[in-house]
Structures are given as structure tokens and as C-alpha cells.
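This part of the workshop introduces the protein records we will be handling. An example says more than a description, so a record of this kind follows.
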Amino acid sequence: KVEYVHRQRFRTRAEARLKIATWIVDFYNLRRRHSANDGLPPVTFEQQMIAKRQASTALLRTAVA
């Protein structure tokens, strides 16, 4: 958020909070790539992890049944 804040001017604290939160949701979490996530945006990485977890859970269920 620091990279966003330093490029903006806000009239009020409430405006700053709203715009920063919007930026985090719209850009930082959806599109910005992160090296810790194999170069994927956090949302995409999380979706892949959920899919992998569901697949492994399904495999365990079929192995037990």
C-alpha cells in the first residue's frame, strides 16, 4: 500500500481508508504478481491451492472407500 499512498493525495482520512482498501482489493490482491506465489497474484494462487486441496481430499475419500 505504501507504493499507492505516496502517489496520492487524500482530502480526509476516511477517503484515504476507502481508496487504499479499494486499491488493495482491486489491484494488489487480484493482479499484482508475487514471487512467493510462483509469480501469481494472491487470488489466483489461493484458487489453485483450494483446487489442489479439494483434489487431494477426493483422492483420500476414494482410497478409503
Remarks:
- DSSP finds three helices and no strands in the chain.
